Amino acid sequence: SCFAAGWPGQGWKLRSACRGWDPWPWAGAFWPLALFVLAGTTNAVNLTDGMDGLAAGVVAVILVGMGSLALTSGSAAPGLAIFALAMAGACIGFLAHNHNPAKVFMGDTGSLGLGGALAGLALLNDQLWALALMGALLVFETLSVLLQVGYFKYTKRRRGEGERLFKMSPFHHHLELSGWNEIQVVGSFYGLTGILVLISWWIAGLASSVT
What is the spatial distance between Cα 166 and Cα 72, in angstroms, rounded to a whole number? Predict the structure, then answer.
């Protein structure tokens, strides 16, 4: 993950070429930023890939959102928008075989690749804020694992017996153990991600009208 994250971070030359911007005066900050975003996003998608159609559908919605933002924001790199929408189409095609009950499974190869695509798009097209908002459920899935492990270790050290915040992590398994079926969980994640995409578009529209 670290090697892959470092590759897009060779200064701001690639990013500047894409967007027509001058390199940041503190361009060295791109390296740790790229490492954090790429490693975090790839693992977030990997953790979300725990139900039939969940990760592929959520990522497809985010890719449509990010691709549409790139098209409407006057991006100097339309190829990034084309790539995002093409990846979204690939995810939708994959869902034909991955929806419940799944006949084909994504696995680490697919989930890590999709996470890397999301992070790369956000870094190269200056859409980190959009990735964070559209992918808020991915962030929460990751946080649920970190909180579960951290709280369990803390309570075990303090009280001698580990306790859990959730019935199971990531959070989609908590919902499943709370009585939700897979279709309800997956559908809710799709819907909430779609709402977050609409909010991102609205924010982008406000920002463009102000500037």
Answer: 40
